[in-house]
Design a protein that fits this description.
- The chain is of the alpha+beta class and about 475 residues long.
- It folds into four domains: about 100 residues, Uridine Diphospho-n-acetylenolpyruvylglucosamine Reductase, domain 2 (2-Layer Sandwich), CATH 3.30.43.10; about 120 residues, Uridine Diphospho-n-acetylenolpyruvylglucosamine Reductase, domain 3, CATH 3.30.465; about 110 residues, Alpha-Beta Plaits, CATH 3.30.70.2190; about 100 residues, Alpha-Beta Plaits (2-Layer Sandwich), CATH 3.30.70.
- The protein is about 35% helix and about 20% strand.
- It has 15 helices and 18 strands.
- The strands form four sheets. The chain has a seven-stranded antiparallel β-sheet, with helices on both faces. It has a five-stranded antiparallel β-sheet with strand order 5-6-10-8-9.
- The chain is globular, with a radius of gyration of 23 Å.
């Protein structure tokens, strides 16, 4: 059979599925899009490495409609790609090979709230910020937070086990998922854990779906645990000239205060932010490294302790300068120094790596990577930032103005090998919080052994025997 014939047969299969969804009254016509603009819009995420080439976009409104799509996809051997807010950075939501995209945009309702359990039931298309605002309306808190909270969807967060800026205190998305409703790759509907804190009845299948990037099935509903609201959050931004001092400051504060965030960025990030003009200098002195730390200070003794730690850090010579918020508004302004970095450097077409190592190894790891980049590509500018309080670093290599994007990405592919060999050296992860998708797939073996990967593949075969769920993401079967 020729490639052209196979492509035609696949196209016919897609059209058969779409027609059946309408004719069997599973969907109405408003829930299916096939126009070029829609295929482009819903067929991609924030990555720029793969061109979208979806066959159709479907918008289910219920778990049963999702099930209908999955069963038909199995019958006709058509691949499905799940789609949430499409804010991913690993091409996990890119439909590059004729897939039908299953968008959760219409499954965006917040359901039953259980006050005694601090538990809320939601649909997968609920936007992260929508959940955060609901929690606040109940004087509670959903602590998983990041720059894309205003557009990312909870289904995508669950699929990638999203982290963000509060992990040092509250952990990853995984810690807040008490139950899931999923449609497996076989088309079965499973209700996993049902919101319980204690449930000692064998394998916790819920945990397999968290972080699986839609390769095992589709999450349709989730039960989310909420937390008490933090009180009197206070922010400090400190400047240091040596990276070792960043670690000293982290240790000094963490030993005596429960931090809710400890973020790091370098002088390159500050230079770009100041040039962009959206934020103000935190203080007059320019330093090589900066940390932003946040903690609750509802009582005067906690504030006194924080000031005492700051003064000790100054006396030790670890901190050159610093500032502490005196109001909620000032705390929000200081947070912009960290939150606006990604947007600001986006004009430089950054090549991003999202890696993690043990906090103990961070200083040596950064030294090794800086040496690799400066030795091989002295004209490349490197911007470091990340959630250093949990060992997660974002390495951003900025494209020189005179260099084409294709040449730049090709050069960065060479750098990748050295970077990930260094990650492997320190026993780290090639993807701390962005997922594997397609961009990190060639490098999975730097963090997972061949035997582990074989186990992952066998697990996928149990839930998705026909390999129709997000095929080609994480690994190839």
């Amino acid at each position: 059979m020729t490639e052209s014939t196979m492509a035609n047969d696949y196209s016919v299969a897609v059209q058969t599925i779409l027609s059946t969804l309408i004719d069997a009254h599973y969907f109405d016509s408003s829930q299916i899009k096939t126009d070029a603009a829609s295929l482009e819009h819903w067929g991609k995420d924030w990555t720029k490495h793969f061109a979208p080439a979806a066959s159709a976009i479907v918008f289910p409104k219920t778990t049963e409609q999702v099930q209908a799509v999955v069963l038909l996809a199995n019958e006709h051997n058509v691949v499905l790609t799940p789609s949430g807010g499409r804010t991913g950075l690993s091409a996990g939501a890119v439909a590059a090979n004729g897939e039908i995209v299953v968008s959760m945009d219409k499954m965006n309702h917040i359901g039953t709230f259980y006050p005694a359990d601090r538990l809320i039931e939601i649909e997968a298309g609920v936007v992260t910020q929508q959940l955060q605002q609901f929690a606040e309306s109940k004087d509670l808190y959903y602590p998983v937070d990041f720059a894309s909270a205003g557009s990312s969807q909870m289904g995508g967060n669950i699929g990638t086990n999203a982290g963000g800026i509060k992990v040092i205190r509250y952990g990853m998305t995984r810690q807040w998922i008490m139950g899931l409703t999923v449609v497996t790759g076989k088309g079965d509907i499973l209700h996993l854990n049902r919101g319980m804190v204690k449930n000692a009845t064998g394998y916790d299948l819920r945990q397999l779906f968290i972080g699986s990037e839609g390769t095992l099935g589709l999450v349709t509903h989730a039960q989310i645990k909420l937390e008490r609201l933090p009180q009197a959050l206070t922010v400090m931004v400190l400047g240091m000239d040596n990276f070792s001092d960043v670690m000293n400051v982290l240790s000094a504060f963490q030993n005596k205060i429960d931090l809710t965030a400890f973020e790091f960025f370098d002088s390159v990030a500050i230079d770009k932010l100041m040039t962009h003009g959206q934020v103000q200098e935190p203080f007059e002195t320019r330093t090589k490294f900066y940390t932003l730390l946040e903690f609750e200070a509802p009582y005067e003794p906690i504030m006194d302790k924080a000031m005492a730690i700051f003064e000790e850090c100054m006396q030790q010579g670890w901190v050159v300068d610093g500032v502490m918020s005196q109001s909620i508004a000032q705390a929000e302004e200081l947070w912009k120094l960290r939150e606006y970095i990604s947007e600001t450097i986006s004009v430089f077409t950054p090549y991003k790596n999202d890696v993690s190592v043990l906090i103990t190894h961070v200083p040596d790891f950064i030294d090794d990577i800086d040496h690799i980049v400066s030795s091989n590509y002295p004209d490349f500018e490197v911007c470091w930032f990340g959630h250093i309080g949990d060992g997660n670093l974002h390495l951003n290599i900025l494209k020189p103005e005179a260099m084409s994007k294709d040449d730049f990405f090709a050069a960065c592919q060479v750098v990748n090998q050295y970077v990930f060999e260094t990650v492997q050296k320190y026993g780290g992860s090639v993807s701390a919080e962005h997922g594997v998708g397609m961009t990190k797939k060639p490098y999975l073996h730097y963090s997972r052994t061949p035997l582990e990967i074989e186990y992952l593949k066998e697990i996928k075969k149990v839930f998705d025997p026909n390999n129709i769920m997000n095929r080609g993401k994480i690994f190839d079967l």
